[in-house]
Design goal:
By secondary structure, the chain is mainly α. It has a domain of 205 residues: Rossmann fold (3-Layer(aba) Sandwich). The protein has 18 helices and seven strands. Strand 6 and strand 7 form a beta hairpin.
Length: 416
């Protein structure tokens, strides 16, 4: 397995990064644009785009913003409403794996920014059947979240005739350099299917074996092309117009709006995924089994590229968190209704053979000295100059809540 000499990504990244002749990956090369582009005219270009969609008659919303109780939702809404003066409709897909802090953050977001919000909550029985199917077919317990989060905003854009959807960072740009920031790539059905949904559209899940019918997948179906054309739906990404720095943006939102953070099971980043029991836990553990790396590699590579962490520090973080067992697996298995042994049997079908091997006791273990090889793959001559020493991500402490904290919160009461 080859690794980038600057960051920590392997050549088998599912988004298909390319390692050049100098041993540096395409993600790192495109990330260099963050320090070379003049972002002021790009911000002005965004202002022009938004002006074209401003609803001057005030009989509709100006745009749609997909949000959740974590990630970059606060920063996106702050930028679009408070900086650029747009009137957005917020939409959110209820992922079912909600933590108390995530519910609190989402409630606080809609209160502090004074925005209308629409929520899609699919029937729990339907979500469970779909999740059992996606675990079996593609080794993913998070497919329904990715599908819902990426299609519900598009459905609402069609329904309410709001053509502009505003997303945060394009994963293909920010992680693997699939596109340049200058390409100003927009959201497409094709990218969503091939990358977000691992090649499976909702229709592909209809299966007698899994008991999934056409009725079950309606909420996950992408609108017809003719509907999209009639409304003129387009989805733009802010990171093409604003220098994207997730940590700095979160820390601004903590100071200005009271965004709350929490420790995560399998990464040092306490900011990004506090709304979900599973994203940096069970889901990330599955990602490690399938791809040989998890969110800690994503986060460390990002900090290395932003010159706040050395590659050696990043490898130490990967070694610390990668093999951490998920804390919330039993809760997930009880919710979905499968046994631990069945879950592990299904996961074994999706393990990466380049990373995992069975030992003499027929137990799975990492091949060779995985972490040493990752460390040795680095080349200090390819590193960018550091801008300071790495410091821990902050913890705010919890918000005030009367909701239970021992299980998923489907609908929360709201928070102070």
């Amino acid at each position: 397995m080859n690794y980038c000499k600057r960051c920590l990504y392997p050549e088998n990244h599912p988004l298909n990064l390319v390692i050049d002749d100098e041993g540096v990956c395409s993600g790192c090369r495109v990330h260099e644009e963050k320090d070379s582009l003049d972002w002021a005219p790009r911000a002005e270009k965004l202002k022009t785009i938004l002006a074209d969609y401003k609803n001057t008659s005030q009989n509709n919303y100006d745009c749609i913003i997909p949000v959740s109780g974590a990630r970059d939702s606060y920063f996106i809404v702050h930028t679009i409403k408070n900086v650029y003066g747009m009137n957005p409709l917020l939409v959110t897909y209820n992922k079912h794996y909600n933590t108390a802090e995530g519910i609190r953050n989402l409630a606080n977001l809609r209160i502090r920014f004074d925005c209308d919000i629409m929520t899609l909550t699919v029937k729990p029985d339907t979500v469970k059947r779909i999740t059992r199917a996606t675990i079996r077919k593609m080794g993913s317990m998070y497919w329904h979240c990715l599908a819902g989060q990426t299609v519900y905003p598009v459905q609402m854009a069609v329904k309410f005739k709001i053509p502009l959807i505003i997303w945060g960072a394009h994963q293909g740009v920010d992680q693997v350099g699939m596109f340049s920031h200058l390409d100003e790539v927009e959201m497409t059905r094709k990218y969503r299917k091939e990358h977000d949904l691992m090649g499976f559209e909702a229709e592909d899940l209809i299966d007698e074996f899994d008991g999934i019918t056409q009725e079950d997948i309606v909420q996950y179906q992408y609108p017809d092309d003719k509907e999209l054309e009639r409304v003129g739906v387009r989805g733009i990404y802010l990171n093409n117009y604003i220098r994207w720095d997730s940590r700095a943006q979160h820390e601004q939102m903590i100071r200005e709006y009271g965004y709350k953070t929490e420790p995560q099971t399998r990464t040092f980043d306490t900011y990004n995924d506090v709304d979900c029991y599973n994203y940096s836990d069970v889901h990330d553990y599955i990602k490690f089994l399938k791809c040989g790396y998890g969110k800690v590699t994503d986060h460390a590579s990002r900090e290395i590229r932003l010159r706040r962490m050395t590659r050696e520090e990043g490898v130490a973080m990967v070694k610390k968190y990668s093999e951490t067992q998920p804390e919330n697996l039993n809760m997930f298995l009880e919710w979905i209704g499968i046994t631990d042994s069945a879950f592990r049997f299904l996961m074994d079908q999706h393990r990466n053979p380049d990373i995992w091997v069975k030992n003499e006791k027929w137990e799975w273990e990492l091949k060779d000295d995985f972490f040493q090889k990752l460390l040795e793959a680095g080349d200090t001559t390819k590193a960018l100059p550091q801008i300071g020493e790495f410091t821990d991500f902050g913890l705010t402490g919890p918000g005030i809540s009367t909701d239970k904290k021992s299980g998923y919160i489907l609908i929360g009461r709201g928070y102070h």
